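tool=predict chain=A
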Amino acid sequence: MRNLFFFLALLLAGISCSSQDNAASPLLATTPAWAEVVSSVACQADVPSLISAQADHHADAPSLADRSSLDQAEIIFSNGLGLEAGWSAALAATPTPVFEAATALNLTQGDPHFWLDPNLVRPLLPSIEAALLAHSDLTADELWRCRQETDQQLVALDAELAQRISVIPVSQRLLVTDHQFLTHLADRYDITVIDTLVDDDSSLAEASTARLTQLMSVMESTNTFVIAVAEDAHLEEAHRLAEVTGAHLVEVPVAPFPHQSLADILTELIDLLVAAWQND
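tool=predict ok
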């Protein structure tokens, strides 16, 4: 019996150590999209996302356990431009190096959802590669190969998205969004965002009755009958606007769930918009 207790103690100790190892990931990303991109450049290394795909990126904030994970990591990859506003203090306070994608792209203002344009992700890959070389165990040859593969995948994705949306004439690619989150995707694929429910790039802003009334008039005058919503925060107002105007309401993905890629969500996003325009 004494030997059995000794064996169980060793087993439990092993389980405890394994859990601690998983909690202290050397590579972290604030969002699922950047976790997927960094993992691809890092030859599919594990890169946990601090913010879940279900969470509002603008409203999420770190727990005490999250703060500990930040301090134990080798490097953290963040988006910037105020996207992870609730994490800004913790990211500023941690001694761990933080790679901010917006800063690397020299973006200082505007829509922070720039990962929705594959051609804005591509220029970041060499900088991500350099950061990983300095803060991971991957070799230069490994990182170069995986970065090249990731770049080729993004080139192919860009071409695929352009082909999928080409069935809709440019003049008909009109929509309203709940907040400013499709600016970069719209610029890349010739989509015109007529207006937004809130004049802000954060889902935390509120839509006023006057704003909704104004949108009804704008949508009617421009023959815009598609509303794209990314966050639950404005779903009620969007439903109301869709009911009054007869528009198609589309809830689009902006963050990959586990086992999804950036290509998966962007393909789904474009397909949902195309389907809504075709049903207009």
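DSSP finds twelve helices and seven strands in the chain. The first helix runs from residue 2 to 23.
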